[in-house]
From TrEMBL:
Domain 3'-5' exoribonuclease Rv2179c-like, residue spans: 1-158
Protein name (database record): 3'-5' exoribonuclease
Origin superkingdom: Archaea
Species of the source: Halomarina oriensis
Single Gene Ontology MF annotation: nucleic acid binding
Amino acid sequence: MMLDLETLGLDPGCVILSLGAVAFDEEGVKETFSRSISLKSCDEAGLEIDAGTLEWWLGQDENVQEQLTGGDELTEVLHEFSEFYSGAEEIWGNSPSFDCEILSAAYDAANAPVPWEFYHERCFRTLKAMPGAVDLEREGDHHDALDDAVHQARRASATLARWSE
């Protein structure tokens, strides 16, 4: 499972704007998951906004800034992601010290169990830096959690397939 978050901070405990994830293997991208999360529900859970990160978002294109509004309740999104994740063997992030830790902190804030074990975390940043890693042309929008997760999963899938030949 490849995970990508768009957030209003860089540390665990920050607001999550959107969560994108995609199941993948050496054969390619499978099912996807994409949800926006309401700022209000993040605030109610005690998640925080970093002023510098918010300022960065406000300097982006309007289509990127749209992520700052709307969204579903944090607890609902976390529950649905846990169901989507069920049965996955690994969770990949770019890097796990960002995506996995921030999402784990959100689960903690919502008093919900994290659906993976720490030893299932994998690092896409490390994989893409390895000799022989596949580089693919980017499709989709940058800073869209699902588009980022799909791109990362496509690259990871192609790289893992190359190495398993």
